[in-house]
Each structure stands twice: as structure tokens, then as C-alpha cells.
Amino acid sequence: MKSTHYFQYMRQRPDRAKIKSEWIIETIRNPIHTETQDDGRIRKWGYISDEGKFLRVIMLEDGETVHNAFFDRNFKGIEV
Questions:
Q1: Contact at 8 Å (CB) between 30 and 22?
Q2: Looking at the DSSP assignment, which residues form a beta bridge with residue 19?
Q3: Strand order of the sheet with strand 65-71?
Q4: What is the number of other CB atoms lying within 10 angstroms of the CB of residue 55?
Q5: How many Cβ atoms sit within 10 Å of the Cβ of residue 32?
Q6: 5-45 pLDDT per residue, tens
Q7: What pLDDT, on a 0 to 100 scale, did the predictor assign at position 15?
Q8: Between the CA of residue 29 and those of 12, 56, 79, what are the distances in Å?
Q9: b vs e for 12-29, b when ≥16 Cβ sit within 10 Å of the residue's Cβ?
């Protein structure tokens, strides 16, 4: 998994350290929702049942490099 220096630094925080790489990879591969920001970065969300929370992964414009990953308290899922 390619990542930025910012991601590596932020991953050392206690609240981010418990986010497993496999959760990030699964969210990238099978997001429940995807958005592109105005700056070209890509937001992807996945539901992590082990935690009962939504994970947001921010990727750079290349669609391969992870810039950030965190549990998103504000995301409520997508209404069908």
C-alpha cells in the first residue's frame, strides 16, 4: 500500500494506530461510498463491523496513494 509521509506520521497517533491495514485496503477495494474532492483527492468510506464504525480513507489524485485514514463519526451511511 503506497502512502504519504503525512499518513505515516498520523498513523502513530493512539487513535489511528488501531486502524488495521487490511481495513484500509478493503475500504479502497470495496467502498460503500466514494467522492472526489475539489482538489482531486478521493474519499472512500467503508464500514468496519469489528469496530461498529465507518472508516474514511483519503487518497491522492493517483488513486493509489493513501493520504489519511480515520473513523468518521459524521458519516451515517448511504440511504437507499
A1: no
A2: none
A3: 2-3, 65-71, 53-59, 42-48, 33-36
A4: 23
A5: 14
A6: 999 999 999 989 999 999 999 999 999 999 999 999 999 99
A7: 87
A8: 24, 13, 21
A9: eeeeeeebeeebbebbbe
